[in-house]
Design brief:
single chain, 641 residues, alpha/beta, two-stranded antiparallel sheet, 10 strands, 9% strand, globular
């Protein structure tokens, strides 16, 4: 058995045929589980190549091949024992790239990509040998259609469809899975080539198709790597296939990191047992291998820690698929810098540690793991616990490297300062969420924050506030009180934000409105959002008479009310059991129910109900705006500018 890591150019460039046995299953990869995660990794490599002129190697897994005995003079043929889904997907990507290059009238890159998917006609004896990969019989007609699909329009003027790509005749009524995959990668590559996926601050840069095609070629042909395992005549291919697919346990990036560091330590004649006990043994607990959800993916906790730790130490974004490669690159760079003459070494960071030796690397991992563990198990009723709960509503993990740094630097000696630091960070995030500002650029923003704090050598709440308030532009600015108030009063937040986000905002306001004389009770988890003036207001909340006569005035009033009912001033929290009784009832029915049954601080605003001059005798647009002002005052206390 021979195993070597090879890039796609090395695998597919020659005159060669990879045949998938008929007994293999057909192509089954799909968008959610396979294509999207793969594309995210590729796009990360593409952006990196475009920005820095170089790319990291990206490991895609392994394929197992068995060479077939050929008649003298025929082309080299291999049977794909394992990895056919991966191999086929790579061909779909290269076919999409080839056809987009043709759409740009770029013969050079069309020929280059075509050479990775098609053998020259003069080199083959049989039709199927012209395809670098020949799938099972179930997928062959679809695969042949892909090879003949032709040029793809490079500018995204319209959404691509299977009918557009295959002249109105997809192989099956709704397309074959291969064709759907090809369509997906056409859309993604076309979007990247046209700059559609660029960050906001890159949109004004001129798009150079030739430069982007060059980056696409370099990443796909040289950046994507597969471990190719070639079986010898004595190897039992079926046994190997069963072992790989049924009895194997996938290694975590942390396992590779552990092996890498301890092999280095062993080569340096260090006491391996002692290093393990002092710095690594805790990582082998179930706590670190427990899978937790962050974003869309569910991953082992130690993977999340390594990602945020490396982002902090390297001062650049690290993608989940690149953890081990990034760690190895980081360690080797640190050692290379340490070997430079003292007068040529870069300035050392003021805040974070700078490990060089293997033992120092292990110490640093162990040190920051203590901080990360507090995020999973924060002290009850602590400011950190509250912050992490509200962070779930903001739905971003990009702040964790900064949190690691703050936790390491400020705790336990400077607990009050750490709590103030969290308040500044939370205020920035929640205000932007309420104001509808993008979170797309947060990864870069918080890396810049770390770099600035490190340069200043001061990690304080005031330093963080000064940095965040100095930024402008929709992708980075800290919303002022004026903007925050305008969003609370006017933005139809119920339509703009997910309910769990709105619920987090209302729960925080309820908490700050608690009377100091009352008990501090934890809110139940089953609270629902209620519109005080219902969405279907027509039955019990008539249009005022002054707007009834003029149809245009009536329409304008209706449109304004339809927006106002979704603003924060018209929203509250109630228990699920109370909700049906309130429903779309009139204010005269709704208010007594709220006063009778709701004990929330948030709903004290609506009672007591009394006779005489009652400012809440009616509930109108003016009432909603007035309550919005009250909620703004409370919210600006929770999240100050």
């Amino acid at each position: 058995m021979d195993a070597k890591a090879r890039d796609l150019n090395q695998i597919f460039d020659g005159t060669i045929s990879f045949q998938i046995p008929l007994f293999q299953r057909p192509y089954v990869w799909n968008k959610e589980k396979n294509w999207e995660p793969l594309w995210e990794d590729i796009q990360g490599l593409l952006d990196y190549e475009l920005q820095y002129g170089r790319h990291r190697k990206h490991f895609l897994g392994a394929v197992v091949l068995e060479q077939l005995k050929n008649v003298a003079g025929s082309i080299e043929t291999h049977q794909v024992i394992d990895g056919q889904q991966r191999f086929t997907t790579l061909q779909l990507i290269m076919l999409a790239a080839r056809d987009l290059a043709k759409g740009l009238d770029n013969e050079k890159y069309f020929d280059r990509f075509n050479d990775l998917v098609t053998n020259k006609a003069s080199k083959v004896d049989y039709e199927h040998e012209k395809y670098k990969v020949w799938p099972t019989n179930r997928d062959r007609e679809a695969f042949k259609a892909l090879h003949e699909s032709g040029a793809v329009e490079s500018e995204p003027f319209a959404d691509l469809t299977l009918e557009m790509l295959f002249s109105g005749k997809p192989v099956e009524p709704h397309g074959n899975r291969m064709q759907e995959g090809y369509l997906y990668f056409c859309k993604q590559i076309r979007g990247w080539l046209s700059g559609e996926f660029d960050e906001a601050d890159e949109l004004e840069q001129e798009i150079n198709p030739e430069e982007r095609l060059d980056a696409l070629w370099k990443v796909i042909s040289g950046g994507l790597q597969v471990v190719v395992i070639n079986l010898d005549d004595d190897d039992e291919s079926q046994v190997i296939f069963e072992t790989l697919n049924a009895r194997g346990t996938q290694l975590l990036p942390a396992d590779l990191v552990k092996n890498y560091l301890f092999r280095k330590a062993q080569a340096d004649a260090q006491d391996i047992e002692d290093l393990y006990k002092r710095h690594w043994s805790a990582f082998d607990d179930d706590f670190w291998r427990t899978e937790v959800t962050q974003g869309r993916a569910k991953r082992p906790r130690i993977d999340l820690f390594l990602q945020h730790y490396l982002t902090l130490m390297m001062r650049e974004e690290v993608r989940p698929a690149h953890l081990f490669e990034s760690f190895k690159e980081y360690v080797e760079n640190q050692q290379a810098l340490a070997d430079l003459p003292e007068d040529k070494q870069p300035s050392k960071p003021n805040l974070s540690v700078l490990p060089v030796t293997t033992e120092e690397q292990l110490k640093a991992l162990s040190r920051y793991s203590l901080a990360f563990k507090t995020f999973a198990e924060p002290p009850g009723n602590s400011r950190l616990a509250m912050f992490l709960k509200r962070l779930e509503a903001v739905d971003t993990a990009t702040v964790y490297p900064l949190l690691l740094l703050a936790c390491d630097q400020l705790l336990p000696a400077q607990q009050p300062e750490f709590d103030r630091f969290l308040t500044v960070l939370e205020s920035f995030l929640v205000r932007r969420m309420v104001c509808g500002l993008t979170s797309k650029n947060y990864n870069r923003l918080f890396l810049d924050v770390i770099k600035t704090l490190d340069k200043e050598g001061s990690l304080t709440a005031d330093a963080l506030k000064a940095i965040l308030q100095s930024s402008d532009g929709d992708s980075v600015r800290f919303p002022s009180d004026e903007e925050f108030k305008a969003s609370i009063l006017n933005r139809p937040i119920y339509q703009a934000l997910a309910q769990y986000k709105i619920r987090a905002v209302l729960e925080a306001i309820d908490q700050v409105q608690a009377d100091r004389k009352s008990e501090n009770l934890e809110l139940p988890n089953d609270l629902t959002i209620e519109h005080v003036m219902p969405v279907k207001w027509e039955l019990n909340w008539p249009i005022p008479e002054e707007h009834q006569a003029d149809p245009e005035a009536k329409l304008q009033f209706t449109q304004q009310r339809d927006q106002v009912v979704h603003t924060l001033g018209n929203l509250t929290l109630i228990t699920g059991s109370l909700n049906p009784s309130l429903s779309n009832g009139s204010w005269q029915k709704k208010r007594p129910e709220l006063a009778k049954y709701s004990k929330l601080n948030l709903n004290r605003y609506f009672y007591p109900v009394h006779e005489g001059d009652d400012p809440l005798a009616d509930w109108s647009e003016d009432s909603i705006r007035e309550r919005g002002r009250v909620l703004f005052q409370a919210a600006s206390g929770v999240w100050p500018y």
